[in-house]
Amino acid sequence: MTVMEQRGAYRPTPPPAWQPRTDPAPLLPDALPYRVLGTDAAADVDPALLRRLYAELVRGRRYNTQATALTKQGRLAVYPSSTGQEACEVAAALVLEERDWLFPSYRDTLAAVARGLDPVQALTLLRGDWHTGYDPHEHRVAPLCTPLATQLPHAVGLAHAARLKGDDVVALALVGDGGTSEGDFHEALNFAAVWQAPVVFLVQNNGFAISVPLAKQTAAPSLAHKAVGYGMPGRLVDGNDAAAVHQVLTEAVAHARAGGGPTLVEAVTYRIDAHTNADDATRYRGEGEVETWRAHDPIALLEHELTERGLLDEDGIRAAQEAAEAMAADLRARMNQDPVLDPMDLFAHVYAEPTPQLREQQALLKAELAAEEEGAHR
Amino acid sequence: MTTVALKPATMAQALTRALRDAMTADPTVHVMGEDVGTLGGVFRVTDGLAKEFGEDRVTDTPLAEAGILGTAVGMAMYGLRPVVEMQFDAFAYPAFEQLISHVARMRNRTRGAMPLPITIRVPYGGGIGGVEHHSDSSEAYYMATPGLHVVTPATVADAYGLLRAAIASDDPVVFLEPKRLYWSKDTWNPEEPQGVEPIGRAVVRRTGRSATLITYGPSVPVCLEAAEAATAEGWDLEVVDLRSLVPFDDETVAASVRRTGRAVVVHESGSYGGPGGEIAARVTERCFHHLEAPVLRVAGFDIPYPPPMLERHHLPGVDRILDAVGRLQWEAEN
Ligand SMILES: Cc1ncc(C[n+]2csc(CCOP(=O)(O)OP(=O)(O)O)c2C)c(N)n1
């Protein structure tokens, strides 16, 4: 009898630890993205929360347009706008307790600001005066992360460390659809599930990785399906429905906090603007597609819900816009001031103590600066 | 007066002891990697630690180097001091993204707000008959990355002292363990193990007057042997053990070369783009007027690390070092 013929008949006894962890069925995401706005579920949402989400969405949209305008004025080197994705950004920031940690990608300035970060400091990386403009410990926001998906294992490690210390802390990590193809995404999810770390992964599936559409990124039925293989639940949510994203993330965070381990949430959304101000999106997508998504705008969806139910009127809308305008004016004014930079900082933060080699180089730059200064005074 | 017994110990034992002492002294020290728990590591350096400190502090991780180092970053962000084991030199490469893009520069990008006290233990180098991917000398990659300290012991005592210093450092340290010296023995007092001077100090292992051999890690014993052999030909060689590649101890090295007037850099990794080129340039810049001959390099060939049956032709040995020393009679020939 050949080995192939033996199949099914012979099954060796697996080693004792070899047991499937879970029945995959409850881990599987629903076929369609979960929605709240425009459904019966909306009635159960606290009106105060809906109003808060609305105000933050309007402010976030204004932040995106203002930051984009600042690139045109040369005040920002580059800006990856999250217009269209504000519901994800805002919900990610609002579901966390103060002690929790947020791990943003390079596109998630808005989530950091919604979490309380100074809007100017959040732009330091993109302005180019330093890499991270804030102390990550202050609001528990990790540095905006440019290499894709590399922040995910950090979130897992931090959540794991917090649990080892007995702290009731959850980490929420953001990643794009393209980032899910990176090896670090896989390693982070695997570690998180094996360690049952209190971490939530939020994939903002905005359709594109720069120009590459999702279909060329993955053959999986959805990105949320990827969770099952790791042994964690996958959840699919309408990323333009702020109430739905908030609800799904709240459940995932509570699940993690209660010791239930990680969750992978895929929010289906759309990047209305180009990849960054430097990108030409007309090369890879048609205006018709963009228009379809504009009709499903996160602000419009929420505004409709609130006005329908008499929770928001013209005055309320105007108040939200005025608050956003005030934020934009302040951002503009402060970003129009030239940052004061100290070239000696180049050497200050490489090591706890500069090496002898760095000290020599520092002396060289100091001498160059002194000579420059002297030349200027001559 | 009590006399302390100096018993022979292996470098691996000294490393284990350093880990145990560091974990005892500081509850934030965590050991993690592939097979470091129950097995005690493939080189047994973490032997017994899981039993003593528990799985939460000595963790068998999933098999994923980027994940190991990446999660260590998050753990360090939350106040732990992870000591990460990379099983073999060439298997650390999947973790390079985390190492270079995050570990090395988190302090810098956060203006000092978020230093990462991570020690990355990498068994490196050849001479143990390892098959492909088990014998690389990867130090040049680490040296080329600002933000990392890079150290490598050559003696049992240094293995202990340097590892304690690495774990205590608030900066990330790549701790290169010369795997062919794991079983080398030295008389060492395990009752009162000593620390080392701060990271960044080289040490003169043998004093001499006619030339300096500048070396580190697995090549230190080879150079000491070469120095002994060279006495027969009238050479009195000084041997400097760098111990730390970053920071580099220019002072000790330059002082030695100024005394002797001649220098050979010896290491296993290839010479093109290797550490020797950097070291030779630094020595030349500082000692030009004292030099009687160009600074020479004796290094591995510029080839992928050879199969075990050929590695003895690749590794710099006593003869090749002595040949180079012979060539230091520069003015006589030119
Ligand atoms: C490791 C890595 N490779 C490539 C890039 C260049 N890059 C920046 S953004 C991007 C696309 C990312 O797409 P996605 O993850 O979907 O996030 P999105 O931009 O849509 O928010 C690429 C390829 C990078 N930042 N990091």
UniProtKB/TrEMBL annotation, chain A:
<dbReference type="InterPro" id="IPR001017">
    <property type="entry name" value="DH_E1"/>
</dbReference>
<keyword id="KW-0670">Pyruvate</keyword>
<feature type="domain" description="Dehydrogenase E1 component">
    <location>
        <begin position="67"/>
        <end position="342"/>
    </location>
</feature>
<dbReference type="InterPro" id="IPR029061">
    <property type="entry name" value="THDP-binding"/>
</dbReference>
<dbReference type="InterPro" id="IPR017596">
    <property type="entry name" value="PdhA/BkdA"/>
</dbReference>
<keyword id="KW-0560">Oxidoreductase</keyword>
<dbReference type="InterPro" id="IPR050771">
    <property type="entry name" value="Alpha-ketoacid_DH_E1_comp"/>
</dbReference>
<dbReference type="Pfam" id="PF00676">
    <property type="entry name" value="E1_dh"/>
</dbReference>
<protein>
    <submittedName>
        <fullName>Pyruvate dehydrogenase (Acetyl-transferring) E1 component subunit alpha</fullName>
    </submittedName>
</protein>
<keyword id="KW-0786">Thiamine pyrophosphate</keyword>
<feature type="region of interest" description="Disordered">
    <location>
        <begin position="1"/>
        <end position="25"/>
    </location>
</feature>
TrEMBL record, chain B:
<keyword id="KW-0560">Oxidoreductase</keyword>
<dbReference type="InterPro" id="IPR033248">
    <property type="entry name" value="Transketolase_C"/>
</dbReference>
<protein>
    <recommendedName>
        <fullName>3-methyl-2-oxobutanoate dehydrogenase (2-methylpropanoyl-transferring)</fullName>
        <ecNumber>1.2.4.4</ecNumber>
    </recommendedName>
</protein>
<feature type="domain" description="Transketolase-like pyrimidine-binding">
    <location>
        <begin position="9"/>
        <end position="184"/>
    </location>
</feature>
<dbReference type="Pfam" id="PF02780">
    <property type="entry name" value="Transketolase_C"/>
</dbReference>
<dbReference type="InterPro" id="IPR009014">
    <property type="entry name" value="Transketo_C/PFOR_II"/>
</dbReference>
<dbReference type="InterPro" id="IPR029061">
    <property type="entry name" value="THDP-binding"/>
</dbReference>
<dbReference type="InterPro" id="IPR005475">
    <property type="entry name" value="Transketolase-like_Pyr-bd"/>
</dbReference>
<dbReference type="Pfam" id="PF02779">
    <property type="entry name" value="Transket_pyr"/>
</dbReference>
